[in-house]
């Protein structure tokens, strides 16, 4: 009994940790979203934001990518361009099977952050943050230069001109 309970707990822990790791922003950014937008996780949902000129559409699905009905739901999207004020907020209305949509006077730039809030009937409210355009280059990666902490030179020691080889010419240099 105790052994089988331990197996169940370990299995459940592995399942949770594997599914949690699959839902990071990096994961979503490395996979194409079904409608060409940006995808994020919010509670039990995957939310895909597609922005067009003065309109946004938010697609709602579960973690298995099954459509979730938005009927009877409410939502809003708040736009902020960098640290500038004021923020612009538009209401999101159910618009089809698993969509919310809203229109308003907003502009999306590389600095724009969109925070979406949704509430579906008999469910907890959820919110998620989208930064819809490409993120800024990470420090040390600009202009195609290698970052200062690049480890490509670790193959040789400072006083070695080339790694030592045995009589057969095999390199047995160990990385540490």
UniProtKB/TrEMBL annotation:
Q: Which UniProt keywords apply?
A: Signal
Asked whether the UniProt record includes Signal among its keywords, one would answer yes
**Compositional bias ranges of the Basic and acidic residues kind:** 140-170
The residues forming the signal peptide are 1-22
Q: Which stretches does the entry tag as region Disordered?
A: 129-176
Keyword Signal on this protein?
yes
Quote the protein name from its UniProt record: Copper(I)-binding protein
Organism ancestry: Bacteria, Pseudomonadati, Pseudomonadota, Betaproteobacteria, Nitrosomonadales
């Amino acid at each position: 009994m105790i052994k089988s309970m331990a197996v169940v707990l370990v299995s459940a822990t592995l399942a949770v940790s594997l599914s949690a790791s699959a839902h990071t922003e990096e994961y979503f950014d490395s996979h194409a979203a079904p409608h060409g937008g940006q995808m994020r996780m919010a509670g039990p949902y995957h939310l895909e934001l597609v922005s067009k000129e003065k309109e946004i559409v938010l697609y709602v699905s579960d973690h298995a990518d099954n459509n979730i009905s938005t009927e009877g739901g409410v939502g809003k999207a708040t736009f902020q361009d960098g640290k500038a004020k004021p923020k612009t907020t538009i209401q999101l209305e159910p618009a089809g099977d698993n969509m919310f949509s809203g229109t308003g006077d907003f502009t999306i730039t590389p600095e724009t952050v969109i925070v979406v809030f949704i509430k579906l009937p008999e469910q907890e409210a959820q919110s998620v943050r989208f930064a819809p355009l490409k993120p800024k280059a990470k420090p040390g990666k600009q202009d195609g230069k290698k970052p200062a902490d690049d480890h490509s030179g670790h193959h040789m020691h400072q006083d070695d001109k080339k790694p030592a080889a045995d009589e057969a010419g095999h390199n047995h240099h160990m990385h540490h």
